[in-house]
Amino acid sequence: MEKAQEFETETCSDRSGYTYKKVKNDKNGVRIYTLENGLKIYLAKNNDAPRIQTYIPVRTGSNNDPSDNTGLAHYLEHMMFKGTSKLGTADWEKEKPLLDQISQLFEEHKTETDPEKKKLLYKKIDEVSQEASKYAIANEYDKAISSLGATGTNAHTWLDETVYKNNIPSNELEKWLQIEKERFSELTLRLFHTELESVYEEFNRAQDNDARLVNYEVMDALFPKHPNGQQTTLGKGEHLKNPSMVAIHEYFDRFYVPNNYAMILVGDLDFEKTIRLIDEYFGKLPFKKLPEKTNISEEPMTKIVERIVKSPTAPRLQMAWRSASYGTPEEKLANLVANILCNSGESGLIDLNINQKQKALRAVAYNSPFKTYGNFSLVIVPKNEQSLEEAKELLLEQIDLVKKGEFPDWLIPAIVTDFKIQRMKDFETANGLATALYNNYISGQSWEEELNEINEYEKITKEDVVTFANDFFKDNYVLVRKEKGINDKLVRVENPGITPVKINREDQSQFLRQILAAKTTDIQPVFIDYSKEIETDKVLKKHVSFVRNQYNDLAQVYFIFPFGSDHDKEIGLATQVLQYLGTAKLSAEELRQEFFKLGITNDFRTGPDQLTISLAGLEENMAQGIELLKDWMSCAKPDQKIYLQYVDTVLESREVAKKDKQQIMNALSNYAKFGKDSRMTDVVSEERLKSIMSEEMTQKIQDLLKMEYQIFFYGKDFEGFKNVVKPFIQKEILKTPERKIYPEPETSGNVFFTNYDMVQTEMAKTAKAANVDLKNFGKINVFNEYFGRGLSSIVFQEIRESKSLAYSAYVSYAANPELNHPDYVTTYIGTQANKLPEAVNAMDDLMADFPQIPAQFENAKNAVLKQIASSRVTRTNIFFNQLNLKKLGVDDDIRKDMYSEIQKLTLADLTHFYDQRIKPLTYNTAIIGKRENLDQNAMKQMGKVHEMTLEDIFGY
After folding, report:
1. 256: helix, coil or strand?
2. Phi, psi (5° rounding) for residue 318?
3. Please, what is the Cα angle at 110 between 106 and 115, to 5 degrees?
């Protein structure tokens, strides 16, 4: 691997006379411009596709919330999608006075202390909001942005950042700038109280996420004075119930100024043209002095602070030390220690001494630096027979080893090599580089400092690490015990009750009409000829495919077997047991270390019809990696004691799954879809697990080498690889086992319910449709865009924007990936239990007759066409796309037919597709929630209700 280079910032001028900074030896070619108003622009080229990944990071987040208006930054992020005085309004002159009146009513509501008077004020807010909604055009920002062919439209808020995201076709850059300039120029708080309901829903969903609840306690204890710990991003319940539109406007005016945000664009762009356009649209926004910020310092921690969190999920423990902010030498040392404990090669002290030896179900270490301070955490999920105290001691033993320097000398250089590899992977994609750039901006570091980071890591010695560890790790940490039990600290924000607003689905503002009317030069689609892009050959009778890596010195090797768990449900078990076994030459721990030294990772993935074994990392070391893999698979030493330990881990993991809300919902939805005889429920029984001999597992692994498989190599030197892989290949003498065929029963109107102690309720309806038909792929894409998924879809507008009935709601038509198997349609609603009946009725009304909105249909159709035209198939996707297409009976690029189909598609065609393929379907329903909170009669109206046990849905 090449040596790290020194980096130095240079100041240059482009052909248009704009000054920019670049860093000498930066292979990414990043240019950093600063406009006169302070706006920073980070530009870099990536020619993977005619698209541009954009981020607009604002240097503000929940840490800047007023102490009496926590959650404000996050709520503002939501409102930034509501438009302006030009975008999202049918008549601004009539709408504005009503919005002003609503704002004043919210101020009165905030200061009023009498509960009954507050209710009357909210009723008045609701009445005026109804009137204002007549002039609001919901989701017009999303309609404008999706008309460009944008994907990934979203935003997030955290401690010190709010980041707005879009991936756009490169020919739509100017339109994107017009739209973003408009939304960053002013704030219009329309449809405020309906969005407030959505924020309530998000807050309540967080109450069902115990990882978030544990993190709240960790941060509160680590930072008893600093906003890091005292102001959560979602805010306090009492503040959400008493919002201030005035305060939100003040926050926007203070922090959403050009000298406090940046524009990150990475992709198919021209530097000079791009900076001129950005200056044209954003250069006139005024510079504003930022408010003075009071630095809040924490007293040093001198004792152990203990907290307890209770929830229905399995117990776990988290230990956290207050660490240093990003960019500091201490942050790098903390990050290095975290990797000495736990790393991507699973060769850290926690990896080997706890996870590898199965002393706990799992344990991890990580360091999260913030703008001020940071959080160094250890997390462990104990085994059934372990107490949380014993689990804590396991973690402290690993910390003690670091403090004593009892870790191998090669480990730090190997970690630094791994950092280099991860950076290569990140920077080769537009999104990876753009993400690094926006993080760099938020952190306040220079791009030179970012690039020099690896050099700084290379200077750190083992002695430095040991000294740091002894200074850092003392009895000065936070200890949070997550116990199984009833959460007696739940804070539920009750919805105040609002009248659904009428959505102006067909109206368009003058601004949107201008965006839609403006012509751009179309990007022509490029469809891939797989026979030209994939080079093939035979090596010792094995079919080998090759795609050239044009980006860096990394390589990937895949051994792809045409069978999986459907053929042998114990094959996945064998590959997992292998992770704990060594050979006559190397122990399991030593094997992990050898792979990590080489900068090579290995992965075993078992699907229903395919087993894939892969290696990824430095191409120069791939020959040694393949040799190591061959020895491991052919010479793994059976060990019954280790195998039975793994069985215990499997059985305990199953019990953990039966306590986890998300896994329960997944299992319940699977049961609603496939019934009792499915892949998910067809598990290896406890009795069988305990009777298996370890030799059976190692024999399965050895047999793989003698079975049918193909090889795929992604790298640079195909000729060299063909020689390298020969020693791996053995004569094919074993046949592929027969595949078990699982039933795909009709969905017949049943309701499957599982009781779970949670704040919200989740419901998924699933219907079996006709068998997959490639001729419908274009219609399916437009249907999902127009009706079912995304911020501008009809379902989102009606369920969330109009009626505020759910935080999350969608309808999805999923084509089956395998020929001669059925498609499935899923509807999903996540909401409060008392809203579920109304939300279900609203969804049923939408699906009774396909909505006819010609303008929105055309927008969705053109958005999908633009997405296809500007997408490109690259890297390993070239091979795997074709591999997947073969399961559908084709081996050419089906996007060509899809594109042609969509070009001719009319709303009448899509309605016919809906009436024929979707409308007649009968659904099974999966519902998870707290029994006493649910309307039992409403559930019965959906179909025959079956209350399911966890054993029913999991199969164990």
Report:
1. coil
2. -130, 130
3. 110
pLDDT in tens, 195-226: 888 888 888 888 888 889 999 999 999 999 99
Cα radius of gyration (the chain): 29
> Residues of the chain with pLDDT > 70: what percent?
99
Number of residues assigned to the chain: 956
- Quote the DSSP letter at residue 915: I
Three-class DSSP category at 613 = strand
CA torsion sign for 277, 282, 284, 288 is negative
Q: Rounded to whole angstroms, how far apart are CA atoms 867 and 503?
A: 27
Of 77, 85, 130, the closest CA to residue 802 belongs to 130
* Cβ contact 20:447 at 8 Å: no
- 330-384: per-residue pLDDT in tens? 999 999 999 999 999 999 999 999 999 999 999 999 999 999 999 999 999 999 9
Is residue 595 within 8 Å of residue 345, measured between CB atoms?
yes
Burial (Cβ within 10 Å: 0-12, 13-18, ≥19) of residue 514: middle
In this structure, what are the phi and psi dihedrals at residue 378, rounded to the nearest 5 degrees? Answer: -120, 135
Dmax (CA) for the chain in angstroms is 84
Q: Can you tell me the distance from the alpha carbon of 189 to that of 191, in angstroms, rounded to the nearest whole number?
A: 7
User: Secondary structure of 261-316 in the HEC alphabet?
Assistant: EEEEEEECCCHHHHHHHHHHHHCCCCCCCCCCCCCCCCCCCCCCEEEEEEECCCCE
Q: Tell whether pTM > 0.85.
A: yes
Query: Is the distance from CB of 191 to CB of 82 less than 8 angstroms?
Result: yes
Report the 10 Å Cβ neighbour count for 14.
14
The runs of H, that is alpha helices, within 405-509 are 411-427, 430-443, 447-459, 462-472
Which DSSP letter does residue 776 get?
G
